[in-house]
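lol so apparently i was supposed to do this last week
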Amino acid sequence: MSETNTVNHPGVALVTGANKGIGYEIAAGLGALGWSVAVGARNEGRREAAVDKLRAAGADAFGVPLDVTDDASVTAAARLIEGKAGRLDALVNNAAITGGGPQEPTTVDVERVRAAVETNVIGVIRVTNALLPLLRRSPSPRIVNVSSSVGSLALQTTPGAETGPIAVAYAPSKTFLNAVTVQYAKELAGTNILINAVCPGYTATDLNGFRGVRTPRQGAAVAIRLATVPDDGPTGRFFDDGGEVPW
Ligand SMILES: NC(=O)c1ccc[n+]([C@@H]2O[C@H](COP(=O)([O-])OP(=O)(O)OC[C@H]3O[C@@H](n4cnc5c(N)ncnc54)[C@H](OP(=O)(O)O)[C@@H]3O)[C@@H](O)[C@H]2O)c1
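anyway here it is w/ NAP bound
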């Protein structure tokens, strides 16, 4: 994909987990492109601080209280966006947790696995389905699931490939998310909704104690690109900054 492959008309985007890290930079990048950005975040103080910062940078941003693990919160978020914008053009499912550590499979506290799946997978399905009616009102709806290359079974089983630490909650939750992305793409084939997974790369954020080597802005770029692909863009695929990632 080239950098010039962007939709002509910026619309309304919801970014989940947009109060910090990569999600904040996805919101900032879309805002800079002229999109109206709904900042989905569960903590009121951090949400409003992010909205203020985005607005100060010139973005058209508004806050949306959102806990992706909570049905009522997600339903209310969809209603709020419907009231403010009437439709949704891009949904970026960015919110995620690691589940905490340690995560060696033979000794893991299974609650860590449950928590990672609840947020990183079921949360994405819950949010996507609640927002689909609004996405269907868009002329060019896009869904981007922020995944990770650690969820790639192809890479996890390639000798010598860089696949991060052993993490039976976080990594398989991203494998599950990848599989979910493919199922959505299959059901939505033939509609104008394009859905893809992306990997931001190893990025310095709270998620990894700021050990990542990329900046959040660099990590955000691939999600922004897939949120703005034209109507003949890809669907049901997995990308990072270098191109396509094997599932
Ligand atoms: N950083 C990396 O190296 C890396 C690499 C590959 C993929 N990723 C992916 O990139 C995405 C962003 O991660 P990040 O590195 O920017 O991490 P981060 O700084 O920890 O941000 C995660 C965001 O998700 C939000 N969140 C968590 N649970 C939520 C819930 N139940 N409801 C709503 N929001 C929730 C957090 O909100 P609170 O502030 O309220 O906790 C926060 O805004 C994630 O999908 C992650 O898996 C990151």
